[in-house]
Amino acid sequence: MACYAANLSAIGAIEKLYKPSLARIHKGRWVVVSVTLSGDFVDHVRWLYWHALDQVKEGGVVREGCNVFTQHAAPAYICAVAAVEAFINETVFGTATFAKPAQSPLAMLDQDWVEKLELKHKLVIIPQLLFSCTFDRGGQPYQDMSILIRIRNDLVHYRMVGQTPGYIAHLQERRIVLATGKPSADYAWVHKLSCSEGIRWANNTTCRLVHAFAEMVPEGEAVPLLQTLANNFSEISDDLVGNRFKELEPSE
Fold first, then answer.
1. What is the DSSP string of 8-67?
2. Are 148 and 41 within 8 A, CB to CB?
3. For the chain, what percentages of helix, strand and coil (3-state, to nearest 5) are there?
4. How many beta carbons lie within 10 A of that of residue 55, not counting itself?
5. Total tally of structural domains belonging to the chain
6. Are residues 32 and 45 in the same domain?
7. Other Cβ atoms closer than 10 A to 175
8. For 80, 146, 151, 214, which has the most beta carbons within 10 A of its beta carbon?
9. What is residue 3's three-state secondary structure?
10. Going by C-beta distance under 8 Å and a sequence separation of 6 or more, which residues neighbour residue 29?
């Protein structure tokens, strides 16, 4: 788990805000200790992606260009959604991250009820109540996040039966999932999702969602640690992928 600490002898003004989460150490100093899981979850998504590419070096792996079949994908989708939900909970409901104004519509609601909402509903309701603006449910990154949530749900409730989810065709058109190109001999839908580009898409979707949320904070309103936590979410660019494949497949 990642921990953040600051010497409050230099910034005494913060002591009042963070007193419930302070720990006194030797020589009378205070430190802020705040533990984040959202950073751990998204770090693990990236770790799974790079390990998926390592299989190329081992050889004998199914792939379409830079899209590699991997068994790391299912846990990556689950961790990606967990990263976003943890980020929202840490920054909105955490005692050391977000001070909700007493007059905020969100502060007037039952916090337990809000916390128990489905993530797709939290992403619409919470920013609207806090910032008077929210995600466009018909645009990005909300649309991709909605698909990612559906993938997570389908995987954790997987029963080896049922029809192929509708989002598979959409992801296939975008070359995110694997496909043989032969409808009569194609992969099972879970194997279509079991690929490195699927992991990269999941990582980048969470990053865009989190940074879009952070950008909704009104200018001039300080939100302690929110940007620090958002900075844990970094995209995997095309250049990074290309450079990695050059390392894995050096020219003769």
1. TTT-THHHHHHGGGEEE-GGG-EEE-EEESHHHHHHHHHHHHHHHHHHHHH----EETTE
2. no
3. 55, 10, 40
4. 19
5. 2
6. no
7. 14
8. 80
9. strand
10. 7, 8, 9
Based on the fold, state whether residues 148 and 23 are members of the same structural domain: no
Domain that holds residue 92: 37-248
Residues 36 and 2: beta-carbon distance below 8 Å: yes
Phi, psi values for residue 247, rounded to 5°: -70, -40
pTM, two decimal places: 0.83
Tell me: do 51 and 26 sit in the same domain: no
Spacing of C-alpha 176 from chain mean position? 17
Cross-strand bridge partners of residue 31: 7, 23
CA distance 161 to 228: 42
Whether residues 47 and 136 share a domain: the answer is yes
Give the type of residue at 80.
A
Give tens-digit pLDDT for 82-130: 999 999 998 888 755 455 555 678 777 787 888 889 999 999 999 998 8
